[in-house]
Amino acid sequence: RGAAPVPPGATPEEKEEFFAALPEEEFSEEEELLRAALLDFLERSGTGPAPLSDAAADEAVADAKLFLPQGVFKEWIDRRIGGEIETRVDARGQAIFGKRGELGNAVKRRRV
Fold first, then answer.
1. Given pLDDT bands bounded at 50, 70 and 90, which one contains residue 91?
2. Which residues partner with 51 through β-bridges?
3. Alpha-carbon span 85 to 70, nearest angstrom
4. By three-state DSSP, how is residue 76 classified?
5. What one-character-per-residue DSSP string does 92-110 give?
6. Contact 35, 84 (CB under 8 A)
7. DSSP 5-72
8. For residue 73, with 0-12 CB atoms within 10 Å meaning exposed, 13-18 middle and 19 or more buried, which class applies?
9. What is the band of 79 on the pLDDT scale with cuts at 50, 70, 90?
10. Side-chain half-sphere CA neighbours of 34 within 13 A
């Protein structure tokens, strides 16, 4: 029931086809697993917002995101679970993520 696999290095058109194939009103099973893995990662890290690269390197998250085309991880978070988890680029240019509403303060604290 998940979306059809997209080869690594997918074109923008292939990425849009991937997103268009996902269910509109619910998550696919693969998406539910990735969503749960990201929320669990944030709970385990316990430090609030975290670098997206740290989550991507986490074994549970890495396994759960295998269905995503290469280069779509951040975009998937923004487009599919952005109501719960948000991403930003911090003052050092690093992509970070956290539960919605927690990043604004983290980015401001890091700039001080």
1. confident
2. 96
3. 20
4. helix
5. TS-EEEEETTSHHHHHHHH
6. yes
7. P--TT--HHHHHHHHHHS-SSS--HHHHHHHHHHHHHHHHH-SSSEEHHHHHHSHHHHHHGGGSPTT-
8. buried
9. very high
10. 22
